[in-house]
Specification:
The protein is α+β, with helices and mostly antiparallel strands. The protein is about 35% helix and about 30% strand. The protein has a single domain (about 15-190, about 275-390), classed as FAD/NAD(P)-binding domain, CATH 3.50.50. The chain has helices at about 15-20, 30-40, 65-75, 80, 115-125, 240-245, 245-255, 305-315, 320-325, 330-360, 365-375, 375-390, and strands at about 20-25, 45-50, 65, 85-95, 100-110, 130, 135-145, 145-155, 155-165, 185, 190-200, 210-215, 220-225, 230-235, 270-275, 280, 285, 290, 295-300. The N and C termini lie far apart (about 50 Å). Bound molecules: flavin-adenine dinucleotide.
Length: about 400
Protein backbone atom coordinates (compact mmCIF):
# COMPACT_ATOMS: atom_id res chain seq x y z
CA UNK A 1 0.00 0.00 0.00
CA UNK A 2 1.26 3.49 -0.86
CA UNK A 3 2.43 5.53 2.17
CA UNK A 4 0.43 8.60 3.24
CA UNK A 5 2.28 11.86 2.53
CA UNK A 6 1.23 13.60 5.72
CA UNK A 7 0.17 12.51 9.18
CA UNK A 8 -2.54 15.20 9.08
CA UNK A 9 -4.49 13.74 6.19
CA UNK A 10 -4.18 10.26 4.76
CA UNK A 11 -3.51 11.12 1.13
CA UNK A 12 -0.70 9.65 -0.94
CA UNK A 13 1.55 11.00 -3.71
CA UNK A 14 -0.66 9.33 -6.35
CA UNK A 15 -3.80 10.93 -4.87
CA UNK A 16 -2.21 14.33 -5.29
CA UNK A 17 -0.83 13.69 -8.76
CA UNK A 18 -4.08 12.27 -10.10
CA UNK A 19 -6.16 15.30 -9.17
CA UNK A 20 -6.39 18.29 -11.50
CA UNK A 21 -6.01 21.15 -9.04
CA UNK A 22 -7.66 24.48 -9.65
CA UNK A 23 -5.18 26.22 -7.38
CA UNK A 24 -1.81 25.22 -5.97
CA UNK A 25 -0.76 27.53 -3.13
CA UNK A 26 2.92 27.63 -2.15
CA UNK A 27 3.38 28.82 1.44
CA UNK A 28 0.94 28.59 4.36
CA UNK A 29 1.64 31.90 6.08
CA UNK A 30 -1.25 34.32 6.59
CA UNK A 31 -1.43 35.18 2.88
CA UNK A 32 -1.28 31.61 1.55
CA UNK A 33 -3.69 29.99 3.99
CA UNK A 34 -6.28 32.77 3.65
CA UNK A 35 -6.04 32.63 -0.17
CA UNK A 36 -6.40 28.83 -0.05
CA UNK A 37 -9.39 29.12 2.30
CA UNK A 38 -11.17 31.57 0.03
CA UNK A 39 -10.52 29.56 -3.11
CA UNK A 40 -11.95 26.48 -1.39
CA UNK A 41 -15.01 28.46 -0.29
CA UNK A 42 -15.51 29.42 -3.93
CA UNK A 43 -15.69 25.72 -4.78
CA UNK A 44 -12.15 25.29 -6.14
CA UNK A 45 -9.91 22.26 -5.61
CA UNK A 46 -6.97 23.60 -3.62
CA UNK A 47 -3.63 22.12 -2.56
CA UNK A 48 -1.69 24.16 0.02
CA UNK A 49 1.99 23.30 0.45
CA UNK A 50 4.47 24.46 3.11
CA UNK A 51 8.03 23.39 3.71
CA UNK A 52 7.70 23.67 7.48
CA UNK A 53 5.99 21.45 10.04
CA UNK A 54 3.01 23.20 11.66
CA UNK A 55 2.54 24.79 14.12
CA UNK A 56 5.70 26.73 13.32
CA UNK A 57 7.27 29.91 14.58
CA UNK A 58 8.03 32.86 12.31
CA UNK A 59 9.87 36.13 12.85
CA UNK A 60 7.10 38.71 13.23
CA UNK A 61 6.03 41.48 15.59
CA UNK A 62 2.77 39.49 15.99
CA UNK A 63 0.55 42.62 15.88
CA UNK A 64 -2.60 42.57 13.79
CA UNK A 65 -3.58 46.17 13.09
CA UNK A 66 -7.10 47.44 12.37
CA UNK A 67 -6.65 46.92 8.66
CA UNK A 68 -5.72 43.24 9.11
CA UNK A 69 -8.62 42.74 11.52
CA UNK A 70 -10.96 44.35 9.02
CA UNK A 71 -9.98 41.82 6.35
CA UNK A 72 -10.57 38.99 8.85
CA UNK A 73 -14.00 40.52 9.58
CA UNK A 74 -14.89 40.63 5.89
CA UNK A 75 -13.91 36.98 5.58
CA UNK A 76 -16.00 35.97 8.59
CA UNK A 77 -12.89 35.07 10.62
CA UNK A 78 -13.21 37.55 13.50
CA UNK A 79 -14.40 34.91 15.99
CA UNK A 80 -11.57 32.60 15.02
CA UNK A 81 -8.90 35.28 15.50
CA UNK A 82 -10.43 36.63 18.70
CA UNK A 83 -10.60 33.12 20.13
CA UNK A 84 -6.85 32.52 19.91
CA UNK A 85 -6.06 34.01 23.32
CA UNK A 86 -4.17 37.00 21.91
CA UNK A 87 -3.97 40.31 23.79
CA UNK A 88 -5.73 43.56 22.95
CA UNK A 89 -3.37 46.36 21.99
CA UNK A 90 -4.07 49.82 23.40
CA UNK A 91 -0.94 51.85 22.83
CA UNK A 92 2.54 52.15 21.39
CA UNK A 93 5.56 53.16 23.47
CA UNK A 94 8.57 54.23 21.42
CA UNK A 95 11.97 54.60 23.15
CA UNK A 96 14.99 56.33 21.60
CA UNK A 97 17.86 57.16 23.94
CA UNK A 98 16.20 58.95 26.84
CA UNK A 99 13.21 60.09 24.76
CA UNK A 100 9.91 58.24 25.05
CA UNK A 101 6.80 58.71 22.92
CA UNK A 102 3.46 57.17 23.95
CA UNK A 103 0.76 57.01 21.29
CA UNK A 104 -2.74 55.57 21.79
CA UNK A 105 -3.13 52.71 19.35
CA UNK A 106 -6.43 51.02 20.11
CA UNK A 107 -8.06 48.17 18.24
CA UNK A 108 -5.20 45.80 17.40
CA UNK A 109 -4.52 42.27 18.64
CA UNK A 110 -1.18 40.62 19.39
CA UNK A 111 -1.08 36.88 18.76
CA UNK A 112 1.94 34.70 18.03
CA UNK A 113 2.39 33.49 14.45
CA UNK A 114 2.73 29.98 15.82
CA UNK A 115 -0.90 30.12 16.97
CA UNK A 116 -2.39 32.35 14.25
CA UNK A 117 -0.97 30.57 11.22
CA UNK A 118 -1.83 27.13 12.59
CA UNK A 119 -5.44 28.21 13.19
CA UNK A 120 -5.74 29.62 9.65
CA UNK A 121 -4.37 26.43 8.13
CA UNK A 122 -6.87 24.36 10.13
CA UNK A 123 -9.69 26.63 8.96
CA UNK A 124 -8.55 26.14 5.35
CA UNK A 125 -8.48 22.36 5.84
CA UNK A 126 -12.01 22.38 7.21
CA UNK A 127 -13.13 24.36 4.12
CA UNK A 128 -11.82 21.53 1.94
CA UNK A 129 -8.20 22.52 1.27
CA UNK A 130 -5.66 19.65 1.11
CA UNK A 131 -2.62 20.65 3.17
CA UNK A 132 0.84 19.28 2.61
CA UNK A 133 3.33 20.37 5.33
CA UNK A 134 7.10 19.69 5.38
CA UNK A 135 7.33 19.70 1.58
CA UNK A 136 9.45 22.10 -0.45
CA UNK A 137 7.64 23.33 -3.57
CA UNK A 138 9.35 24.60 -6.72
CA UNK A 139 7.59 26.32 -9.55
CA UNK A 140 7.71 24.40 -12.83
CA UNK A 141 6.81 25.28 -16.42
CA UNK A 142 3.49 25.98 -18.10
CA UNK A 143 2.24 22.66 -19.51
CA UNK A 144 -0.79 23.08 -21.77
CA UNK A 145 -3.46 24.91 -19.79
CA UNK A 146 -1.83 24.14 -16.41
CA UNK A 147 1.21 25.17 -14.41
CA UNK A 148 3.46 22.51 -12.94
CA UNK A 149 4.86 22.53 -9.39
CA UNK A 150 7.38 20.01 -8.09
CA UNK A 151 7.14 18.90 -4.49
CA UNK A 152 10.24 17.62 -2.75
CA UNK A 153 10.78 15.72 0.46
CA UNK A 154 13.78 13.69 1.59
CA UNK A 155 15.19 13.07 -1.85
CA UNK A 156 11.88 12.17 -3.53
CA UNK A 157 10.14 14.48 -5.97
CA UNK A 158 6.66 14.51 -7.47
CA UNK A 159 5.03 16.88 -9.96
CA UNK A 160 1.52 18.25 -9.63
CA UNK A 161 -0.46 20.44 -11.99
CA UNK A 162 -2.82 23.29 -11.26
CA UNK A 163 -4.92 25.62 -13.38
CA UNK A 164 -3.10 28.34 -11.51
CA UNK A 165 -0.50 28.79 -8.77
CA UNK A 166 -0.48 31.30 -5.93
CA UNK A 167 3.03 32.01 -4.69
CA UNK A 168 2.82 33.03 -1.01
CA UNK A 169 6.28 31.91 0.03
CA UNK A 170 7.20 35.04 1.98
CA UNK A 171 10.72 36.33 1.36
CA UNK A 172 11.87 33.05 -0.14
CA UNK A 173 12.07 32.30 -3.84
CA UNK A 174 10.25 29.34 -5.37
CA UNK A 175 11.39 29.69 -8.95
CA UNK A 176 14.02 27.62 -10.64
CA UNK A 177 17.26 29.60 -10.58
CA UNK A 178 17.30 29.89 -14.38
CA UNK A 179 13.82 31.46 -14.56
CA UNK A 180 13.57 34.74 -16.44
CA UNK A 181 9.96 35.24 -15.53
CA UNK A 182 10.64 37.32 -12.42
CA UNK A 183 13.20 39.71 -11.14
CA UNK A 184 13.65 40.20 -7.42
CA UNK A 185 15.37 43.42 -6.41
CA UNK A 186 16.74 43.45 -2.90
CA UNK A 187 17.78 46.86 -1.53
CA UNK A 188 21.49 46.42 -0.80
CA UNK A 189 21.40 48.18 2.58
CA UNK A 190 18.24 46.36 3.66
CA UNK A 191 18.03 45.11 7.21
CA UNK A 192 17.35 41.52 8.26
CA UNK A 193 14.73 40.35 10.76
CA UNK A 194 15.35 38.34 13.94
CA UNK A 195 12.85 37.18 16.51
CA UNK A 196 12.02 34.92 19.43
CA UNK A 197 9.24 34.10 21.87
CA UNK A 198 10.04 34.22 25.61
CA UNK A 199 8.34 32.83 28.70
CA UNK A 200 9.12 35.96 30.67
CA UNK A 201 7.42 37.12 33.90
CA UNK A 202 4.95 39.93 33.36
CA UNK A 203 6.60 42.46 35.69
CA UNK A 204 8.20 44.23 32.72
CA UNK A 205 6.66 45.08 29.36
CA UNK A 206 3.02 45.34 30.38
CA UNK A 207 0.34 43.63 28.31
CA UNK A 208 -1.54 45.86 25.87
CA UNK A 209 1.40 48.00 24.77
CA UNK A 210 3.72 47.60 21.79
CA UNK A 211 7.15 48.44 23.25
CA UNK A 212 9.66 49.58 20.69
CA UNK A 213 13.29 50.62 21.08
CA UNK A 214 15.43 52.10 18.31
CA UNK A 215 19.22 52.27 18.36
CA UNK A 216 22.13 52.73 15.98
CA UNK A 217 21.91 49.24 14.45
CA UNK A 218 18.15 48.78 14.18
CA UNK A 219 14.94 48.61 16.18
CA UNK A 220 13.21 45.97 18.27
CA UNK A 221 9.52 45.54 19.13
CA UNK A 222 8.26 43.65 22.17
CA UNK A 223 4.67 42.68 22.88
CA UNK A 224 2.81 40.26 25.14
CA UNK A 225 0.94 37.58 23.22
CA UNK A 226 -1.21 34.65 24.38
CA UNK A 227 -0.37 33.07 27.76
CA UNK A 228 1.62 36.17 28.66
CA UNK A 229 4.57 35.16 26.46
CA UNK A 230 6.80 37.97 25.25
CA UNK A 231 7.21 38.19 21.46
CA UNK A 232 10.36 39.98 20.28
CA UNK A 233 10.97 40.94 16.65
CA UNK A 234 13.65 43.24 15.29
CA UNK A 235 15.02 44.69 12.08
CA UNK A 236 18.81 44.91 12.24
CA UNK A 237 21.65 46.15 10.06
CA UNK A 238 23.62 43.15 8.91
CA UNK A 239 26.94 44.75 9.92
CA UNK A 240 25.59 45.55 13.37
CA UNK A 241 24.39 41.96 13.81
CA UNK A 242 27.79 40.66 12.71
CA UNK A 243 29.64 43.00 15.10
CA UNK A 244 27.38 42.06 18.00
CA UNK A 245 27.94 38.38 17.31
CA UNK A 246 24.39 37.11 17.93
CA UNK A 247 20.74 38.27 17.77
CA UNK A 248 20.54 38.20 21.58
CA UNK A 249 23.52 40.55 22.09
CA UNK A 250 22.27 42.83 19.30
CA UNK A 251 18.80 43.14 20.89
CA UNK A 252 20.36 43.67 24.33
CA UNK A 253 22.46 46.52 22.89
CA UNK A 254 19.37 48.17 21.33
CA UNK A 255 17.35 47.87 24.54
CA UNK A 256 20.23 49.29 26.59
CA UNK A 257 20.69 52.18 24.14
CA UNK A 258 16.99 52.98 24.43
CA UNK A 259 17.05 52.72 28.25
CA UNK A 260 14.61 49.83 28.25
CA UNK A 261 14.79 46.80 30.57
CA UNK A 262 16.47 43.65 29.23
CA UNK A 263 14.37 40.48 29.64
CA UNK A 264 16.16 37.98 31.90
CA UNK A 265 15.76 35.05 29.49
CA UNK A 266 16.89 37.01 26.40
CA UNK A 267 20.37 35.49 26.13
CA UNK A 268 19.08 31.90 26.35
CA UNK A 269 16.31 32.40 23.75
CA UNK A 270 15.97 30.36 20.58
CA UNK A 271 16.29 32.86 17.71
CA UNK A 272 15.10 32.79 14.14
CA UNK A 273 16.26 35.05 11.33
CA UNK A 274 15.10 36.22 7.91
CA UNK A 275 16.61 37.12 4.58
CA UNK A 276 17.05 40.84 3.79
CA UNK A 277 13.67 42.49 4.19
CA UNK A 278 13.31 45.29 1.65
CA UNK A 279 12.66 43.81 -1.78
CA UNK A 280 10.29 43.74 -4.71
CA UNK A 281 9.57 40.98 -7.19
CA UNK A 282 8.06 41.89 -10.56
CA UNK A 283 5.85 41.16 -12.34
CA UNK A 284 3.36 39.95 -9.73
CA UNK A 285 1.63 37.71 -12.26
CA UNK A 286 2.85 35.61 -15.15
CA UNK A 287 1.65 32.50 -17.00
CA UNK A 288 -0.98 31.30 -14.49
CA UNK A 289 1.10 32.32 -11.46
CA UNK A 290 0.09 35.07 -9.01
CA UNK A 291 2.30 36.51 -6.28
CA UNK A 292 0.79 37.67 -2.98
CA UNK A 293 2.01 38.76 0.46
CA UNK A 294 5.74 39.17 1.06
CA UNK A 295 6.46 37.10 -2.06
CA UNK A 296 5.48 40.15 -4.13
CA UNK A 297 7.47 42.61 -2.04
CA UNK A 298 8.21 43.75 1.47
CA UNK A 299 9.81 46.65 3.29
CA UNK A 300 11.17 47.01 6.81
CA UNK A 301 8.44 46.30 9.33
CA UNK A 302 8.42 49.52 11.41
CA UNK A 303 4.75 50.26 10.71
CA UNK A 304 3.75 46.64 11.40
CA UNK A 305 1.56 46.27 8.33
CA UNK A 306 2.97 43.17 6.66
CA UNK A 307 0.17 40.79 7.65
CA UNK A 308 -2.44 43.33 6.54
CA UNK A 309 -0.72 43.52 3.12
CA UNK A 310 -0.64 39.73 2.93
CA UNK A 311 -4.31 39.44 3.85
CA UNK A 312 -5.42 42.20 1.49
CA UNK A 313 -3.59 40.65 -1.44
CA UNK A 314 -4.97 37.19 -0.57
CA UNK A 315 -8.47 38.63 -0.57
CA UNK A 316 -8.19 40.82 -3.67
CA UNK A 317 -6.40 38.32 -5.91
CA UNK A 318 -9.40 35.96 -5.88
CA UNK A 319 -11.36 37.41 -8.86
CA UNK A 320 -8.19 37.15 -10.98
CA UNK A 321 -7.71 33.56 -9.84
CA UNK A 322 -11.31 32.76 -10.78
CA UNK A 323 -10.73 34.20 -14.25
CA UNK A 324 -7.49 32.24 -14.70
CA UNK A 325 -9.14 28.98 -13.60
CA UNK A 326 -12.15 29.50 -15.86
CA UNK A 327 -10.17 30.24 -19.03
CA UNK A 328 -8.67 27.49 -21.16
CA UNK A 329 -5.94 29.84 -22.42
CA UNK A 330 -3.87 32.16 -20.29
CA UNK A 331 -4.64 35.77 -20.99
CA UNK A 332 -1.86 38.26 -20.19
CA UNK A 333 -4.71 40.72 -19.47
CA UNK A 334 -5.55 38.74 -16.34
CA UNK A 335 -1.96 39.10 -15.17
CA UNK A 336 -1.95 42.82 -15.99
CA UNK A 337 -5.18 43.22 -14.05
CA UNK A 338 -3.61 41.79 -10.90
CA UNK A 339 -0.46 43.87 -11.48
CA UNK A 340 -2.49 47.11 -11.58
CA UNK A 341 -4.61 46.17 -8.62
CA UNK A 342 -1.51 45.27 -6.61
CA UNK A 343 -0.01 48.70 -7.32
CA UNK A 344 -3.15 50.49 -6.13
CA UNK A 345 -3.55 48.30 -3.10
CA UNK A 346 -0.05 47.94 -1.73
CA UNK A 347 2.72 49.87 -3.50
CA UNK A 348 1.96 53.32 -2.00
CA UNK A 349 1.62 51.85 1.51
CA UNK A 350 5.01 50.18 1.14
CA UNK A 351 6.54 53.46 -0.09
CA UNK A 352 5.29 55.21 3.02
CA UNK A 353 6.64 52.46 5.25
CA UNK A 354 9.99 52.62 3.47
CA UNK A 355 10.20 56.37 4.10
CA UNK A 356 9.61 55.72 7.79
CA UNK A 357 12.33 53.11 7.80
CA UNK A 358 14.84 55.54 6.24
CA UNK A 359 13.88 58.16 8.79
CA UNK A 360 14.70 55.75 11.58
CA UNK A 361 18.23 55.39 10.32
CA UNK A 362 19.13 59.00 11.08
CA UNK A 363 19.47 59.54 14.85
CA UNK A 364 19.11 63.34 14.41
CA UNK A 365 15.93 63.16 12.31
CA UNK A 366 14.53 60.55 14.62
CA UNK A 367 15.22 62.57 17.72
CA UNK A 368 13.70 65.70 16.10
CA UNK A 369 10.55 63.92 14.98
CA UNK A 370 10.12 62.33 18.38
CA UNK A 371 10.35 65.79 19.90
CA UNK A 372 7.70 67.11 17.45
CA UNK A 373 5.42 64.15 18.19
CA UNK A 374 5.81 64.68 21.95
CA UNK A 375 4.90 68.37 21.86
CA UNK A 376 2.23 67.84 19.17
CA UNK A 377 0.53 64.49 19.89
CA UNK A 378 -1.92 65.07 17.00
CA UNK A 379 1.00 64.52 14.58
CA UNK A 380 1.63 60.98 15.85
CA UNK A 381 -2.11 60.18 15.90
CA UNK A 382 -2.45 61.37 12.32
CA UNK A 383 0.30 59.00 11.21
CA UNK A 384 -1.20 56.08 13.10
CA UNK A 385 -4.66 56.69 11.61
CA UNK A 386 -3.15 56.97 8.15
CA UNK A 387 -1.46 53.57 8.56
CA UNK A 388 -4.58 51.88 9.86
CA UNK A 389 -6.84 53.28 7.13
CA UNK A 390 -8.48 50.76 4.82
CA UNK A 391 -7.69 51.30 1.13
CA UNK A 392 -10.36 52.11 -1.45
CA UNK A 393 -10.88 48.70 -2.97
CA UNK A 394 -11.68 48.37 -6.65
CA UNK A 395 -15.05 46.68 -7.03
CA UNK A 396 -14.92 43.52 -9.15
CA UNK A 397 -17.56 42.59 -11.64
C1 LIG B 1 10.95 41.79 12.40
C2 LIG B 1 9.59 41.73 11.77
C3 LIG B 1 8.49 42.23 12.45
C4 LIG B 1 7.23 42.21 11.86
N1 LIG B 1 6.16 42.66 12.56
C5 LIG B 1 4.92 42.64 12.02
C6 LIG B 1 3.78 43.03 12.77
O1 LIG B 1 3.85 43.34 13.96
N2 LIG B 1 2.57 43.04 12.14
C7 LIG B 1 2.43 42.66 10.84
O2 LIG B 1 1.32 42.69 10.32
N3 LIG B 1 3.50 42.22 10.13
C8 LIG B 1 4.73 42.19 10.69
N4 LIG B 1 5.80 41.70 9.98
C9 LIG B 1 5.59 41.26 8.60
C10 LIG B 1 4.94 39.89 8.50
O3 LIG B 1 5.64 38.96 9.29
C11 LIG B 1 4.93 39.44 7.04
O4 LIG B 1 4.60 40.51 6.21
C12 LIG B 1 3.93 38.31 6.84
O5 LIG B 1 4.33 37.17 7.56
C13 LIG B 1 3.81 37.94 5.37
O6 LIG B 1 2.99 36.84 5.25
P1 LIG B 1 3.16 35.84 4.02
O7 LIG B 1 2.04 34.86 4.18
O8 LIG B 1 3.30 36.60 2.77
O9 LIG B 1 4.57 35.11 4.25
P2 LIG B 1 5.08 34.22 5.46
O10 LIG B 1 4.30 34.48 6.67
O11 LIG B 1 6.56 34.43 5.50
O12 LIG B 1 4.78 32.72 5.01
C14 LIG B 1 5.48 32.12 3.96
C15 LIG B 1 5.39 30.61 4.11
O13 LIG B 1 5.92 30.01 2.93
C16 LIG B 1 6.66 28.86 3.27
N5 LIG B 1 7.59 28.61 2.17
C17 LIG B 1 8.59 29.39 1.72
N6 LIG B 1 9.18 28.85 0.64
C18 LIG B 1 8.52 27.67 0.40
C19 LIG B 1 8.66 26.65 -0.58
N7 LIG B 1 9.58 26.72 -1.56
N8 LIG B 1 7.83 25.57 -0.51
C20 LIG B 1 6.89 25.48 0.46
N9 LIG B 1 6.71 26.42 1.40
C21 LIG B 1 7.52 27.51 1.37
C22 LIG B 1 7.31 29.24 4.59
O14 LIG B 1 7.67 28.09 5.34
C23 LIG B 1 6.20 30.08 5.27
O15 LIG B 1 5.39 29.28 6.12
C24 LIG B 1 7.07 41.69 10.55
C25 LIG B 1 8.17 41.15 9.88
C26 LIG B 1 9.41 41.15 10.48
C27 LIG B 1 10.58 40.55 9.74
Amino acid sequence: MEKALTPLEPFTASDIQQKLWDVLVIGAGVAGSVAALQAARLGMQVLLIDKRRFPRRKVCGACLNNLALDVFRQLGLTKLVQGLGGTDINDFSFHVGRQVLHVPLPGGIAVSRETLDDALVKEAISAGVWFLPEKLAKLGPLVGDCREVTIQQEGTEISVRGRCVIVASGLESVGPAESNEWKTEVVASSRVGVGCLLNEPEDQFATGTIWMGAGAGGYAGLVRVEEGRLNIAAALDRDFLRQQGSPATAIRAILEQSKMPVPASLMAAEWQGTLQLTRTTRPVASDRVFLIGDAAGYVEPFTGEGMAWGLLTAQQVMPWIQQAVARADWSPQVGKGWEQEYQTLIAHRQNLCQRFAWFLRSPTLLSMSLFVATVWPGFAKLLVNRLNAAPNLTPHE
